[in-house]
Queue: 2 jobs
Job 1
Amino acid sequence: QVELVESGGGLVQPGGSLRLSCEISGLTLDDYSIGWFRQPPGRAREGVSCFSFSDGNADWLDSVKGRFAISRDMAKKMVWLQMNSLKPEDTGVYYCAAGRGTIVPGCVRHYPYWGRGTRVFVSS
Protein backbone atom coordinates (compact mmCIF):
# COMPACT_ATOMS: atom_id res chain seq x y z
CA GLN A 1 0.00 0.00 0.00
CA VAL A 2 2.92 2.35 0.66
CA GLU A 3 4.11 3.80 -2.62
CA LEU A 4 6.53 6.51 -3.69
CA VAL A 5 6.68 7.53 -7.34
CA GLU A 6 9.32 9.86 -8.74
CA SER A 7 8.95 11.80 -11.96
CA GLY A 8 10.48 14.73 -13.80
CA GLY A 9 13.85 13.37 -14.84
CA GLY A 10 15.31 13.79 -18.28
CA LEU A 11 18.10 15.29 -20.33
CA VAL A 12 19.23 18.81 -19.55
CA GLN A 13 22.22 20.91 -20.54
CA PRO A 14 24.79 22.03 -17.98
CA GLY A 15 23.53 25.13 -16.24
CA GLY A 16 19.92 24.14 -16.76
CA SER A 17 17.22 23.19 -14.29
CA LEU A 18 14.91 20.30 -13.53
CA ARG A 19 12.21 19.77 -10.95
CA LEU A 20 11.71 16.25 -9.68
CA SER A 21 8.46 15.18 -8.06
CA CYS A 22 7.80 12.50 -5.47
CA GLU A 23 4.21 11.44 -4.93
CA ILE A 24 3.63 9.53 -1.70
CA SER A 25 0.74 7.34 -0.65
CA GLY A 26 0.01 5.08 2.29
CA LEU A 27 1.89 7.08 4.96
CA THR A 28 1.00 9.58 7.65
CA LEU A 29 3.57 12.13 6.61
CA ASP A 30 3.77 14.07 9.86
CA ASP A 31 5.39 10.99 11.41
CA TYR A 32 7.96 10.56 8.65
CA SER A 33 11.08 11.93 7.06
CA ILE A 34 11.70 12.07 3.32
CA GLY A 35 15.05 11.69 1.63
CA TRP A 36 16.26 12.35 -1.88
CA PHE A 37 19.12 10.13 -3.03
CA ARG A 38 21.01 9.68 -6.25
CA GLN A 39 23.25 7.05 -7.75
CA PRO A 40 25.69 8.32 -10.38
CA PRO A 41 26.89 5.85 -13.01
CA GLY A 42 29.56 3.62 -11.54
CA ARG A 43 29.34 5.20 -8.09
CA ALA A 44 27.64 4.46 -4.81
CA ARG A 45 24.31 5.92 -3.88
CA GLU A 46 24.50 9.17 -1.93
CA GLY A 47 22.07 11.28 0.01
CA VAL A 48 21.17 14.53 -1.75
CA SER A 49 18.85 15.94 0.88
CA CYS A 50 16.52 14.82 3.61
CA PHE A 51 13.99 16.49 5.83
CA SER A 52 11.46 15.72 8.50
CA PHE A 53 7.82 16.69 8.15
CA SER A 54 7.44 16.62 11.92
CA ASP A 55 10.24 18.90 13.12
CA GLY A 56 11.44 20.61 9.94
CA ASN A 57 15.05 19.45 10.28
CA ALA A 58 16.91 19.11 7.00
CA ASP A 59 20.34 18.27 5.66
CA TRP A 60 22.00 18.68 2.28
CA LEU A 61 24.85 17.17 0.32
CA ASP A 62 27.62 19.77 0.26
CA SER A 63 27.95 19.71 -3.52
CA VAL A 64 24.31 20.73 -4.06
CA LYS A 65 23.97 23.42 -1.40
CA GLY A 66 22.81 26.67 -2.94
CA ARG A 67 21.74 24.96 -6.16
CA PHE A 68 19.01 22.55 -5.07
CA ALA A 69 15.93 23.17 -2.97
CA ILE A 70 13.08 21.09 -1.58
CA SER A 71 9.45 22.03 -1.37
CA ARG A 72 6.63 19.99 0.05
CA ASP A 73 2.87 19.90 0.41
CA MET A 74 1.71 17.62 3.20
CA ALA A 75 -1.95 17.79 2.17
CA LYS A 76 -1.13 16.70 -1.37
CA LYS A 77 1.52 14.24 -0.16
CA MET A 78 3.97 15.67 -2.66
CA VAL A 79 7.64 16.54 -2.39
CA TRP A 80 9.65 18.35 -5.06
CA LEU A 81 13.37 18.63 -5.62
CA GLN A 82 14.23 21.76 -7.58
CA MET A 83 17.64 21.40 -9.21
CA ASN A 84 19.30 24.50 -10.64
CA SER A 85 22.69 25.21 -12.20
CA LEU A 86 23.02 21.55 -13.05
CA LYS A 87 26.43 20.05 -13.64
CA PRO A 88 27.45 16.85 -15.44
CA GLU A 89 28.33 15.32 -12.08
CA ASP A 90 24.67 15.64 -11.08
CA THR A 91 23.87 12.88 -13.57
CA GLY A 92 22.36 9.78 -12.03
CA VAL A 93 19.22 7.99 -10.97
CA TYR A 94 17.35 10.01 -8.35
CA TYR A 95 15.22 8.32 -5.72
CA CYS A 96 12.88 9.51 -3.03
CA ALA A 97 12.56 7.50 0.15
CA ALA A 98 10.55 7.60 3.37
CA GLY A 99 11.13 6.45 6.91
CA ARG A 100 9.49 7.03 10.25
CA GLY A 101 11.09 9.54 12.55
CA THR A 102 13.50 12.39 12.01
CA ILE A 103 16.65 12.73 9.92
CA VAL A 104 20.29 12.16 10.80
CA PRO A 105 23.31 14.06 9.46
CA GLY A 106 24.22 12.88 6.00
CA CYS A 107 20.83 11.22 5.53
CA VAL A 108 22.44 7.85 6.26
CA ARG A 109 19.64 6.40 8.37
CA HIS A 110 17.52 3.51 7.17
CA TYR A 111 14.65 4.34 4.84
CA PRO A 112 12.35 1.35 4.39
CA TYR A 113 10.25 2.78 1.56
CA TRP A 114 11.69 3.71 -1.81
CA GLY A 115 10.52 4.76 -5.22
CA ARG A 116 11.87 3.23 -8.40
CA GLY A 117 13.84 6.32 -9.35
CA THR A 118 13.94 8.78 -12.22
CA ARG A 119 16.97 9.28 -14.43
CA VAL A 120 18.70 12.64 -14.79
CA PHE A 121 21.25 13.27 -17.55
CA VAL A 122 23.22 16.50 -17.52
CA SER A 123 25.15 16.74 -20.76
CA SER A 124 25.79 19.07 -23.66
Note: The CA atoms of residues 48 and 64 lie 7 Å apart.
Job 2
Amino acid sequence: QVQLVESGGGLVQPGGSLRLSCAASGFTFSSDVMSWYRQAPGKERELVASITFTGSTNYADSMKGRFTISRDNVKNTVYLQMNSLKPEDTAVYYCRTTRMGIPYWGKGTLVTVSS
Protein backbone atom coordinates (compact mmCIF):
# COMPACT_ATOMS: atom_id res chain seq x y z
CA GLN A 1 0.00 0.00 0.00
CA VAL A 2 1.47 3.30 -1.12
CA GLN A 3 1.77 5.82 1.68
CA LEU A 4 3.12 9.36 1.54
CA VAL A 5 3.39 11.37 4.75
CA GLU A 6 4.40 15.02 4.63
CA SER A 7 5.84 16.99 7.54
CA GLY A 8 7.71 20.19 8.25
CA GLY A 9 5.06 22.80 7.55
CA GLY A 10 4.30 25.69 9.85
CA LEU A 11 4.22 29.44 10.26
CA VAL A 12 7.21 31.38 8.98
CA GLN A 13 7.89 35.07 8.42
CA PRO A 14 8.46 36.48 4.94
CA GLY A 15 12.05 35.87 3.89
CA GLY A 16 12.32 32.82 6.11
CA SER A 17 12.98 29.18 5.29
CA LEU A 18 11.33 25.82 5.82
CA ARG A 19 12.25 22.28 4.93
CA LEU A 20 9.45 19.89 4.10
CA SER A 21 9.82 16.12 4.18
CA CYS A 22 7.78 13.36 2.59
CA ALA A 23 8.27 9.86 3.94
CA ALA A 24 7.27 7.18 1.43
CA SER A 25 6.43 3.53 1.90
CA GLY A 26 4.73 0.66 0.13
CA PHE A 27 6.55 0.91 -3.19
CA THR A 28 10.03 0.94 -4.74
CA PHE A 29 10.82 4.53 -3.90
CA SER A 30 14.22 4.60 -5.59
CA SER A 31 12.75 3.96 -9.05
CA ASP A 32 9.93 6.51 -9.04
CA VAL A 33 9.59 10.19 -9.89
CA MET A 34 8.57 12.17 -6.82
CA SER A 35 6.90 15.56 -6.90
CA TRP A 36 5.77 18.36 -4.64
CA TYR A 37 2.58 20.24 -5.41
CA ARG A 38 0.83 23.01 -3.57
CA GLN A 39 -2.66 24.40 -3.32
CA ALA A 40 -3.33 27.90 -2.08
CA PRO A 41 -6.75 28.94 -0.77
CA GLY A 42 -9.15 29.40 -3.66
CA LYS A 43 -6.64 28.25 -6.25
CA GLU A 44 -5.95 25.09 -8.19
CA ARG A 45 -3.26 22.67 -7.17
CA GLU A 46 0.01 23.40 -8.98
CA LEU A 47 3.32 21.66 -9.49
CA VAL A 48 6.17 22.99 -7.37
CA ALA A 49 9.02 20.64 -8.28
CA SER A 50 9.79 17.08 -9.28
CA ILE A 51 12.80 14.80 -9.10
CA THR A 52 13.55 11.61 -11.02
CA PHE A 53 15.17 8.50 -9.59
CA THR A 54 18.48 9.67 -11.06
CA GLY A 55 18.19 13.06 -9.37
CA SER A 56 17.16 15.18 -12.34
CA THR A 57 14.98 18.05 -11.17
CA ASN A 58 12.29 20.29 -12.59
CA TYR A 59 10.82 23.43 -11.02
CA ALA A 60 7.93 25.75 -11.63
CA ASP A 61 9.26 29.11 -12.81
CA SER A 62 8.17 31.00 -9.70
CA MET A 63 10.12 28.61 -7.45
CA LYS A 64 13.37 28.49 -9.38
CA GLY A 65 16.28 29.75 -7.30
CA ARG A 66 14.29 29.68 -4.05
CA PHE A 67 13.20 26.05 -3.69
CA THR A 68 15.30 22.91 -3.87
CA ILE A 69 13.95 19.38 -4.18
CA SER A 70 16.08 16.43 -3.16
CA ARG A 71 15.68 12.79 -2.26
CA ASP A 72 17.27 10.17 -0.06
CA ASN A 73 16.72 6.75 -1.58
CA VAL A 74 17.97 5.01 1.57
CA LYS A 75 15.52 6.82 3.85
CA ASN A 76 12.73 6.72 1.21
CA THR A 77 12.23 10.42 1.73
CA VAL A 78 11.90 13.41 -0.57
CA TYR A 79 12.59 16.92 0.68
CA LEU A 80 11.68 20.44 -0.33
CA GLN A 81 13.96 23.18 0.96
CA MET A 82 12.16 26.51 0.67
CA ASN A 83 14.07 29.77 1.07
CA SER A 84 13.15 33.43 0.71
CA LEU A 85 9.52 32.57 1.39
CA LYS A 86 6.82 35.02 0.36
CA PRO A 87 3.24 35.43 1.55
CA GLU A 88 2.09 34.06 -1.80
CA ASP A 89 3.86 30.77 -0.97
CA THR A 90 1.18 30.16 1.64
CA ALA A 91 -0.49 26.87 0.71
CA VAL A 92 -0.93 23.24 1.58
CA TYR A 93 2.02 21.35 0.16
CA TYR A 94 1.50 17.83 -1.11
CA CYS A 95 3.81 15.00 -2.01
CA ARG A 96 2.91 12.87 -5.02
CA THR A 97 4.05 9.82 -6.91
CA THR A 98 2.53 8.01 -9.86
CA ARG A 99 2.57 4.27 -10.27
CA MET A 100 1.17 2.51 -13.34
CA GLY A 101 -0.60 5.72 -14.27
CA ILE A 102 -2.30 6.12 -10.90
CA PRO A 103 -1.40 9.21 -8.85
CA TYR A 104 -0.90 8.86 -5.11
CA TRP A 105 -1.01 11.85 -2.79
CA GLY A 106 -0.12 12.54 0.77
CA LYS A 107 -2.51 14.45 3.03
CA GLY A 108 -0.42 17.59 2.82
CA THR A 109 1.32 19.96 5.21
CA LEU A 110 0.30 23.58 5.66
CA VAL A 111 2.82 26.35 5.11
CA THR A 112 1.82 29.84 6.21
CA VAL A 113 4.06 32.78 5.37
CA SER A 114 3.04 35.80 7.39
CA SER A 115 4.44 38.46 9.65
Note: The chain is about 0% helix and 55% strand.
